[in-house]
TrEMBL record:
<protein>
    <submittedName>
        <fullName>Transcriptional regulator</fullName>
    </submittedName>
</protein>
<dbReference type="Pfam" id="PF12833">
    <property type="entry name" value="HTH_18"/>
</dbReference>
<feature type="domain" description="HTH araC/xylS-type">
    <location>
        <begin position="213"/>
        <end position="314"/>
    </location>
</feature>
<keyword id="KW-0238">DNA-binding</keyword>
<dbReference type="GO" id="GO:0003700">
    <property type="term" value="F:DNA-binding transcription factor activity"/>
</dbReference>
<dbReference type="GO" id="GO:0043565">
    <property type="term" value="F:sequence-specific DNA binding"/>
</dbReference>
<keyword id="KW-0804">Transcription</keyword>
<dbReference type="InterPro" id="IPR018060">
    <property type="entry name" value="HTH_AraC"/>
</dbReference>
<dbReference type="InterPro" id="IPR009057">
    <property type="entry name" value="Homeodomain-like_sf"/>
</dbReference>
<dbReference type="InterPro" id="IPR050204">
    <property type="entry name" value="AraC_XylS_family_regulators"/>
</dbReference>
<dbReference type="Pfam" id="PF14525">
    <property type="entry name" value="AraC_binding_2"/>
</dbReference>
<keyword id="KW-0805">Transcription regulation</keyword>
<dbReference type="InterPro" id="IPR035418">
    <property type="entry name" value="AraC-bd_2"/>
</dbReference>
Length: 318
């Protein structure tokens, strides 16, 4: 279902108050100051896509800021991506100033203060992703929040195109389709962050470093632990997550995706057993660290082209 807020029928003297309330409902509570002397106008349309929230905002010049007091009163642990579809903007967060032109993206964290300055009439598409759904190390997220990213190449171009299409199709998405599309958006964002952090990274560490086999052994021994993650692996070896990723750059896969791939391989192997006493699909998923059955089914199908139950029925090996 889509929700729409518009100042069209609001008396001129009450429009800014109405607009602040609309932004709080559609996005997060913010302080808004109009730029200009004329009557203010704006429109927001929003809708849910699985665990994500997508909004299109069109309005007159303004400055919107989220203060520590507002964060304390209404916490929001989300990562936001803004796609500038018309006009320009400046994002301020963590001491960074990101200037955004039409077609660019900005990334910011709603749990920390920020400000968005729009000097002219503008339109932007805003995606809010719960931090738990993003699943990226805090260190990597901090490298992209408060920055502008090109929306014309690589994963940025794909994300811009995808969000443009999704905003138009939100009202017609079934819950099942919305969940799958949301997972695709999160994966695209993860790829975008990977691109940015890799481009900013120093020279790769030695892939033959003695830590690499020790880390691989650690991952193999802890696959059943749902808490296994790049952060936990790095902490166990007294290194930063950043250095962990550098060690594995020549593997052609991030550590998080390596963990998921190895877990899926163990699950696929166990699901081929013909023994009548073989564990259920859910039990196999839990055995190898997948706490959420729906998530397991989704990533398994993406990797092997069929659902876990179809895999069992066909007795596929490999």
């Amino acid at each position: 279902m889509s929700l729409v807020w518009t100042t069209d029928a609001v008396p001129e003297g009450e429009r800014l108050t109405y607009w602040r309330d609309a932004l709080s409902r559609a996005l997060v509570p913010m302080t808004v100051t109009a730029r200009g002397d004329g009557p203010f106008s704006g429109r927001i349309s929003s809708g849910r896509l699985g665990c994500l929230w997508i909004s299109t905002v069109e309005a007159d010049p303004q400055r919107a800021s989220r203060t520590p007091a507002q964060i304390a009163r209404a916490a929001s642990d989300c990562v936001a991506v803004g796609v500038q579809t018309a006009g320009t903007a400046t994002l301020l967060q963590d001491g960074r100033h990101a200037r955004v032109g039409e077609g660019d993206l900005v990334v910011y964290d709603t749990s920390r203060p920020y400000a968005l300055d729009y000097p002219g009439r503008f339109s932007t598409r805003v995606l809010h992703m719960p931090r738990r759904a993003v699943g990226l190390p805090e260190e990597d997220l901090r490298r992209v929040t408060g920055t502008a990213l090109a929306g014309t190449e690589g994963a940025g171009a794909l994300l811009v195109s995808f969000l443009t299409g999704l905003a138009a199709s939100l009202p017609t998405c079934s819950p099942a389709v919305a969940t799958r599309l949301a997972a695709s958006v999160v994966d695209l964002f993860g790829t975008l962050v990977d691109e940015r952090t890799t481009a900013d990274a120093p020279a790769p560490a030695d892939p033959h470093h003695p830590l690499v086999p020790r880390i691989r052994d650690h991952i193999d021994r802890h696959l059943a632990d749902p808490g296994l993650s790049p952060a936990s692996v790095a902490a166990a070896h007294h290194i930063s997550v950043r250095y962990l990723h550098r060690l594995f750059e020549e593997e052609g896969v991030t550590v998080a995706r390596l963990i998921r791939r190895l877990r899926l391989e163990r699950c696929a192997r166990d699901l081929t057993r013909r023994d009548p006493a073989a564990p259920t699909v859910s039990a196999v998923a839990q055995r190898w660290g997948f706490a959420n059955p729906a998530h397991f089914s989704r990533v398994f199908r993406a990797a092997y082209g069929r659902s876990p139950r179809d895999w069992v029925r066909h007795g596929t090996v490999g």
